[in-house]
Amino acid sequence: MSSPDRADPSTVLDKFLVGYQGWYSTPGDRVILREGTWNHWFDKEPGLGGGRPQFDIWPDTSEYAASDLHEVEGYNTPWGLAKLFSSFKSGVVDLHFQMMKDHGIDGSFLQRWVNQCNPSGDPWSELARLTLERDAVLKLVRAAAEKQGRVWAIMYDLTATPSDRLEAAILSDWDHLNRDEGVTSSGMYLRHGGKPVLALCGVGFARSQQSPSILKSIIESLRRRWHAQGGIWIILGVSTQWRNPGTGDQDASADWLEVYHLVDAISPWTVRRYGNEESADTYASNTVRDDMKFLEKRGIKYMPTVFPGFSMANATKLGRYNEVPRQGGRFLWRQLYNLQMEGARTIYAAMFDEFDSGTALMPAVSSPDQIPALDPMYLRRNRWRSKFITTDEGGDPGLPSDWFLRVCGTAAFALKGGPKLDKELPRKKLLIDYWHSRPRPAQSEASWSASPSGSGSQGPSGSSSNSQPVLHSVPAEEDPLDGLPPPPYTLEAGSGEKKADDSDLTRLAAATANVTLNSSEATSDPQSPLSPISVAGTPTPSATATSSVQTVSNIDTHLTQVVPSDPPRRFESLSRPDSSPTQFPPSQPLHPAPAPRPNLSTRPSSSRPSAPLASRPAVPGRSSGSSRPSSPAPVVASTLLYDAISVNHHTGPNYLRSPALRSNCEWGARQRNNFVPDAVFLHTKHPLLE
Question: How many structural domains comprise the chain?
Answer without folding.
Answer: 3
